[in-house]
């Protein structure tokens, strides 16, 4: 690179470019500009705003926490358990309620089980036998209660018997009660406290009324006019699913409690309210189906005076409640890219104006203008002093080039400045 080229490059580093607006009286380009504006405006209004609702940003990454607490007591008197008072420590499993909790409503009780040998239940097909060879010792009974000992036990003169097993004896043989043991559980209440947070907008809320009145939760109950009371009566929850509490309490079932948060942050926070829905999740339409109902077994263990362990086995039927939380929050946001798309119309029309039409060189000369500061020769400065002007070592005047046009005349860069004004 020559010395002149290097000097020009170094000087260009200190150039400053400022905008200049040129009104081009060209109907074709003007029409193209308006058509582009209308097209962009139509796209923004119809597609971005109306169809895609692009004026709002949505957050569906809901963070949620559930706390549940059941309250209520009832009294029973059965041959297996005698007189007994049931409270939340007896019928709620697990005791630390979360988004899933189970309430016992019916029981099959097998008391005083000990580890010894006894006959397997006749309801277990793998335990049927006709000879001792059908009961190989040490083999567990499929879907049964223990392991085979090698003996086939028969009752009276019956040809078919059941294998003897080593298990917790006696095994469970009683049928399910025809009436739910804890039928009065429909008057129990459950407290469901839900905390939510949408991290994108840092928005948090709870389904409990924000009050300092400590008696509020002890007296209120959820209803259409009281959506911020999180106390639900179990019988009402089951009825809202279209089911009968006594029927579902007999053989158990699964109830879904859905909490929906659909919030618009452009409105007041008080407008962001929880919406509840209740549904039966198990196979409620097939009463005799093997998939209907809900039950499981648990035991309570004790030791007698001799230190031998024994237990009471309970097959619990009841209602499992699944609390599920969904939601989204939206808010109006700015779209800087919309302004960029809008300014793109001007950029495109500028390209057409200065490159593609017949008089493009004319518009280009008008759009790009170069301004320099020229130094007046010393001789001109001296003549100015003789003419009565203030003394100056040198004076500066601007030189204007339109579009890089060539200079005319005798080569003097200040020719136009020396011409008299006519």
From TrEMBL:
Gene3D superfamilies according to UniProt: atp-gated p2x4 ion channel, atp-gated p2x4 ion channel domain
Topology versus the membrane: Multi-pass membrane protein
GO function terms (MF aspect): ATP binding; extracellularly ATP-gated monoatomic cation channel activity; ligand-gated monoatomic anion channel activity; purinergic nucleotide receptor activity
Binding-site residues for ATP, renumbered to this chain: 69-71, 189, 295-297, 315
Membrane-traversing stretches: 31-50
Any one GO BP annotation for this protein: response to ATP
Intracellular or extracellular location(s): Cell membrane; Membrane
Region of interest: Disordered: 380-422
Segment forming the signal sequence: none
Composition-biased stretches (Basic and acidic residues): 391-402
Disulfides per UniProt: 118-169, 129-152, 135-163, 220-229, 263-272
Principal subcellular localization: membrane
UniProt cross-references to PANTHER family, sorted A to Z: P2X PURINOCEPTOR, P2X PURINOCEPTOR 5
Family under the similarity heading: Belongs to the P2X receptor family.
Annotated function: Receptor for ATP that acts as a ligand-gated ion channel.
Assembly mode: Functional P2XRs are organized as homomeric and heteromeric trimers. Homotrimer. Forms heterotrimer with P2RX1.
Name used for this protein in its record: P2X purinoceptor
Species of provenance: Neovison vison
């Amino acid at each position: 690179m020559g010395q002149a080229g290097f000097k020009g490059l170094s000087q260009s580093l200190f150039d400053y470019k400022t905008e200049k607006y040129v009104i081009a009286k060209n109907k074709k380009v003007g029409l193209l500009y308006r058509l582009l504006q209308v097209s962009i405006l139509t796209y923004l209004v119809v597609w971005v705003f109306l169809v895609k609702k692009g004026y709002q940003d949505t957050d569906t990454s809901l963070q949620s926490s559930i706390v549940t607490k059941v309250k209520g007591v009832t009294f029973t008197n059965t041959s297996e358990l005698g007189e007994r008072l049931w409270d939340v420590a007896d019928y709620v499993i697990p005791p630390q309620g979360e988004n899933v909790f189970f309430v016992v409503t019916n029981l099959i009780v097998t008391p005083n089980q000990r580890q010894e040998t006894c006959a397997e239940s006749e309801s277990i097909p793998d335990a049927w036998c006709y000879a001792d060879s059908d009961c190989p010792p040490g083999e567990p009974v499929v879907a049964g209660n223990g392991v085979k000992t090698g003996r086939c036990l028969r009752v009276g003169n019956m040809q078919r018997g059941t294998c003897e097993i080593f298990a917790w004896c006696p095994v469970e043989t009683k049928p399910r009660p025809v009436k739910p043991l804890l039928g009065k559980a429909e008057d129990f209440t459950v407290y469901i406290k839900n905390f939510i947070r949408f991290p994108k907008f840092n928005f948090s809320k709870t389904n409990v009324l924000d009050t300092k009145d400590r008696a509020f939760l002890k007296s209120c109950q959820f209803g259409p006019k009281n959506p911020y009371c999180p106390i639900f009566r179990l019988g009402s929850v089951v009825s809202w699913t279209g089911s009968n509490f006594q029927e579902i309490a007999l053989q158990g079932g699964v109830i879904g409690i859905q909490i929906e948060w659909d919030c618009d942050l452009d409105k007041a926070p008080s407008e962001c309210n929880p919406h509840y829905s209740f549904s039966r999740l198990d196979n409620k339409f097939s009463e005799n189906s093997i998939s209907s109902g809900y039950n499981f077994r648990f035991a309570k263990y004790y030791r007698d005076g001799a230190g031998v362990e024994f237990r009471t086995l309970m097959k619990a039927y009841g209602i499992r409640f699944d609390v599920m939380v969904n939601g989204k929050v939206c808010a109006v946001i700015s779209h800087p890219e919309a302004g960029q798309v809008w300014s793109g119309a001007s950029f495109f029309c500028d390209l057409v104006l200065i490159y593609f039409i017949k008089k493009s060189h004319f518009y280009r000369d008008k759009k790009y203008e170069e301004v320099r500061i020229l130094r007046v020769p010393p001789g001109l400065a001296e003549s100015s002093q003789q003419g009565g002007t203030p003394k100056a070592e040198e004076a500066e005047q601007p030189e204007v080039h339109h579009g890089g046009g060539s200079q005319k005349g005798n080569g003097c860069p200040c020719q136009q400045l020396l011409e008299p004004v006519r």
